[in-house]
Structure formats: structure tokens, C-alpha cells
Design a protein that fits this description.
This protein has 351 residues and is an alpha+beta fold. It has one domain: Anthranilate synthase (4-Layer Sandwich). 28% of the residues lie in helices and 32% in strands. It contains 7 helices and 16 strands. It has a 16-stranded antiparallel beta sheet with strand order 10-11-9-8-14-13-3-4-2-1-6-7-15-16-5-12, sandwiched between helices. Strand 6 and strand 7 form a beta hairpin. Helix 2 runs antiparallel to helix 6. The protein starts with 10 loop residues before the first helix and ends with a helix.
């Protein structure tokens, strides 16, 4: 596994990732908060006590990548393999399509089918000339030290880069942590949090309390809600700490999809999303991160909800963004909120 002690990749890690991009090898280059960079690949060590799991938010099953040692400097590098672009990015969502989905959700709220639904959209951005995915990945990692930053290259999924601040499930020793993250405003805003944002965040927190109780979590404590910065925007964050015994696979399945990326009730929200959104979410709103195996299942687990991410095309990037819609939501306000969230990545492309 490759690593570094600062915000820059080691030469070996950069060389390996560049080689894999050129040769069309599935891999993920990642940086967990406070940790060195790591490489995982299809051809990594499958006997290791940890893997990197990626669960799409759209259609398709989860897949695993495995710890990888650096390869020699003689391996070839060059242009990114064409096969990574065989699945083109989703088309951008125009305002009319977004408004249509919003109207469908508004009718569902009137009929009491759901209390909240997360409506997402796709925004395209032109890539700079001679765009280098690895260089951009390093810039994202430097800009967002508190997020899981990842570059995923998959022959089936294409190339994705993202910065994910929301913890689905991670460990601190024998203690497990999950987050309730919802509500959005401009970073460092002098405007107090509104009732809509506070209610949205409480809906997510209430759902997590129910899941933890149903799954037999012990010693549960809460910290928050408090403001949590994510570049140009900030959210309300509550941190849950608890202990659990045995296999945590069923707990992961119960926590995902979270109401922060689907809605409430979760199943009804998921069905409404299928009708309201014209695009497949791909890896957006899935989860990704380190998953321990055997006796290290809990100790090595660090899974994050995949937010603030983009799917790279040859000349454009499809940036995924969304927000929680409730009966109190205003169409233009929600559209503008997605614009602000997209700045997390677009401003780095423009700089």
C-alpha cells in the first residue's frame, strides 16, 4: 500500500496510478482524513484483512478492490485508456426537467406518501485543456482535508473523482460512528439556520436513532447538531457514537441508503426518486471506503457516503449534486442550493 506524509503523492503511487489509467486497470486512489494516500486494485492482495468497497447509488452491485504494493518505474504511462470512456457521463439536467421532478414530489407530499425526498441533478463542466485526473485529485485532496477523497477508475463505471464528508460507518477503536448530515447554507453565513434545514436534519437523526435501536446498538451517544463546513457550503451535523457486536453487514445495509441521500420513509423516497430523476446516479449517493474482514471487521471499517463527486468524460465532467425536498421547499431556492453545492468541485476546475 502506498503512502505519503503530506498532501502530495509519492512518486511510486503517482507512477502506479498513471500506469493503471493508461493500461485500463481497475483501481482506486484514496486519502482518508488524517491518513496517508492508499492504492487498491482488482489485482491487489485478496488475502489482506481489508478491502475497499464501492456500492453504487444507482443501478448495479457493490464491488471490491484490494490493497496494492507499488509497481516498478519501468511500467508504461501515457494517455488514459479509451475503455474508461466507453460509458459516457449522464446528460445534464436542465431546469425544466428538475422542475418536473420537483412537481412530482410536491404532489407526493400533498398525498402524504413521503415527508422528504432527495432530488438530484447532473451539471456539466468543461474540462481544462490537457486535464490530468491525478493532478486534479491531488488538488481536491488538498482543498478538503476533512473528507474521504477518491479517484476511482473502473472499466464498468468509468473514472470518478469525489470528496465525501459524510461518514456512513467508521470506527474509533472499538467504538463505531455514524453521521446525520442534512441542511445546507452558504459557508460562514451570518443568517441563522432556518426551520426547514433544522427539521430536515432532525428527520435524518430520528431515522438513525431508530436503526441503531433496532440493530441492538449499545452505549449510544449524540453530539450536535452543529455546523460542518464543506467548501463553499456548510451543513448541520450530528455525530452518533455506539458499540456493536458481531457482523456489521446488516447494520451497513440498514444505514444505507441514508435519508440524507434518499428521503423518508426511505423505501417510498427511493421509489419516487426513480420516477422523478431522468438519470442514473451511478456512484453518486452510494458508499465507498475501507471495510475490514474477519476479526478486523470493526477496527478497520471507514465507509463514507459518496457525495460531491464527478464522472469524467473526454472533454466534460458530469457533476452530481442534490438536496432534500420537503413540503416547505421552494423550487428556485432548491435549484440555487444545488448550484452552490456543485461549486465544491467546479471551482477547482476553474482555478
Amino acid at each position: 500500500m502506498s503512502s505519503c506524509t503530506d498532501t502530495h503523492l509519492t512518486e511510486g503511487a503517482q507512477r502506479t496510478a498513471a500506469s493503471f489509467l493508461h493500461r485500463g486497470k481497475d483501481f482506486v486512489l484514496c486519502r482518508f482524513p488524517g491518513e496517508p494516500f492508499s492504492l487498491f486494485a482488482r489485482e491487489g492482495d485478496r488475502s489482506a484483512e481489508v478491502c475497499f468497497r464501492i456500492k453504487p447509488g444507482g443501478a448495479g452491485p457493490a464491488f471490491d478492490l484490494f490493497p496494492l504494493r507499488e509497481i516498478s518505474s519501468e511500467d508504461e504511462t501515457g494517455a488514459t485508456a479509451d475503455l474508461f470512456f466507453e460509458k459516457p457521463p449522464e446528460a445534464p439536467t436542465d431546469f425544466e426537467a428538475y422542475a418536473s421532478g420537483f412537481a412530482l414530489l410536491s404532489k407526493a407530499f400533498t398525498r402524504k406518501i413521503a415527508r422528504k425526498v432527495v432530488l438530484s441533478r447532473v451539471k456539466h463542466a468543461t474540462l481544462p485543456e490537457n486535464f490530468d485526473p491525478l493532478y486534479f485529485f491531488e488538488r481536491v485532496a488538498e482543498a478538503y482535508p476533512g473528507a474521504l477523497v477518491s479517484l476511482t477508475a473502473s472499466r464498468a463505471r468509468g473514472i470518478w473523482i469525489g470528496a465525501s464528508p459524510e461518514v456512513l460507518l467508521r470506527s474509533e477503536g472499538n467504538t463505531l460512528i455514524t453521521h446525520s448530515l442534512a441542511g445546507t447554507r452558504a459557508a460562514a453565513s451570518a443568517v441563522p439556520w432556518g426551520q426547514k434545514e433544522r427539521e430536515e436534519q432532525e428527520l435524518v437523526s430520528r431515522h438513525i436513532r431508530t436503526v441503531l435501536m433496532r440493530k441492538g446498538a449499545e452505549d449510544v451517544s449524540e453530539d450536535g447538531p452543529q455546523a460542518f463546513g464543506a467548501g463553499p457550503v456548510e451543513h448541520l451535523l450530528t455525530t452518533f457514537r455506539f458499540s456493536a457486536k458481531g457482523n456489521i453487514a446488516s447494520l451497513i445495509d440498514a444505514l444505507h441508503p441514508t435519508p440524507a441521500v434518499s428521503g423518508l420513509p426511505v423505501q417510498a423516497a427511493e421509489e419516487l426518486i426513480m420516477r422523478a430523476e431522468p438519470h442514473d446516479r451511478g456512484l453518486y449517493t452510494g458508499y465507498l471506503g475501507r471495510l475490514g474482514k474477519g476479526p478486523k471487521t470493526i477496527a478497520e471499517t471507514a465507509l463514507y457516503v459518496n457525495l460531491r463527486c464527478m464522472h469524467l468524460g473526454r472533454e466534460t465532467a458530469a457533476i452530481y449534486t442534490g438536496g432534500g425536498i420537503t413540503a416547505a421547499s421552494v423550487l428556485r431556492d432548491e435549484w440555487e442550493e444545488t448550484e452552490k453545492k456543485a461549486l465544491t468541485l467546479t471551482k477547482l476546475l476553474d482555478d
